[in-house]
Specification:
0% strand, 2 helices
Length: 67
């Protein structure tokens, strides 16, 4: 049986990653923060869009025209 690949956990010490974070910034954490912010904004817009506009989302309304 082949060994299962090891995945890093919060308690692992990763000196190469830490050096890269110091040199270039923590892109993973920045992406997680941006994703959480985007999710929060989307949820807020959907909630206010439903409450304030008769159940329809705000913004552009896409309509398909078949002819």
């Amino acid at each position: 049986m082949a060994p299962t690949p090891r995945t890093p956990t919060g308690s692992d010490h990763l000196p190469i990653y830490e050096d890269l974070v110091r040199e270039r910034g923590d892109a993973v954490t920045e992406a997680q923060i941006a994703a959480a912010h985007t999710q929060h904004q989307a949820a807020e817009l959907l909630t206010t869009g439903e409450a304030g506009h008769g159940g329809r989302p705000t913004g552009h309304h896409h309509q398909s025209h078949f002819g």
